[in-house]
Amino acid sequence: MITFVIRRFLQGLVVLFVVSFIAFFIFQYLGDPVLTLAGRYASQEQQAMVRKTLGLDHPFFIQYLKFVGNALRGNFGMSYVSRVPVLELIIERLPASIELALMAELLAVVVGITLGVYVAANPRNFLSKFFMTGSLFGVSLPTFLVGIILIFIFSINFKLLPSSGRGEVVQIIGSWRTSFLTLDGLKHIILPAFTLGMFQMALIFRMTRNTMLEALGAEYIRTAKAKGLRRVKVLVKHALRNALIPVITMIGLQFGQLIGFAIVTESIFQWPGAGNLLLTSMYESDFPVVASYIIMVAIVVLLINIVVDISYALLNPRIRYK
Predict the structure, then answer these.
(1) What would the CATH number be for the domain defined by 94-273+305-315?
(2) For the packed helices 287-315 and 60-72, what is the interaxial angle rounded to 10 degrees?
(3) What is the pTM of this model?
(4) Using an 8 Å Cβ cutoff, are 289 and 79 in contact?
(5) pLDDT per residue over 68-93, tens digit each?
(6) Domains of the chain: which residue ranges?
(7) What is the pLDDT at residue 90?
(8) Which of 83, 117, 263, 281 could pair covalently with 289 via S-S, beta carbons 3.0-4.6 A apart?
């Protein structure tokens, strides 16, 4: 197992270098930060001065090697726009994004797996057919439309939940401020979390149902039933444990996406997370922020994948890594 984890970390380092190079290469041609900072009507001399100050007058590979060298030391450079260290900007916004992703993931996993097991165990039930039909809407509806509908129903019509902002937060560790410890914060996170997690909830539900149906038709399940084991024990201990392996893969991959690409949800609900920072930075051609954010998301996805691979062996003792 240790050898496997080390090998995956080494593979991940290669992936990170490739991701950083692609990000650096693409954003060289998606906008010129000099025009944003110096102004549209700046003279050639003023633009050249700004370009030299930012280090953009060097060749592409020199800029890239400097960026990688600084990143390896934990220095992701300065924001072109705010002139604040990039790491500071991202860390300040990251707690809001992580908490939103955690709440969305929790809703998606708990509701998706529970409904998936129920529908697989009761395939001809009226509620099962209703849930299957509802999952089609969850997969088909775009995120921005779900958010707008929820705001219209719960914020405008019934005035039950707030439509924007993070609400009251409490500082717990360093600069980490959480909304989980206040009632106002919890009320603010419900709608964006449901919006962000609904697509994944529908996917988890449908995949859990399919893998559970396959597991329930296996020989070892018939043997367990023949021994007279209780239905709940057969479903949870025997069927669900094996059915969860492909589901966990999807949960792990989707969680990284929830953290990294919640731009639409954060924009709709004015959530002060890193997704909003990324959107603003792309608009302003603030490349250090964009590239650093992409690299950090890649690191999160890499670590999650390693945890997912390790969890396979815990769920199924027959799986061993050499």
Answers:
(1) 1.10.3720.10
(2) 50
(3) 0.82
(4) yes
(5) 888 888 788 888 778 788 888 888 88
(6) 94-273+305-315
(7) 87
(8) 281
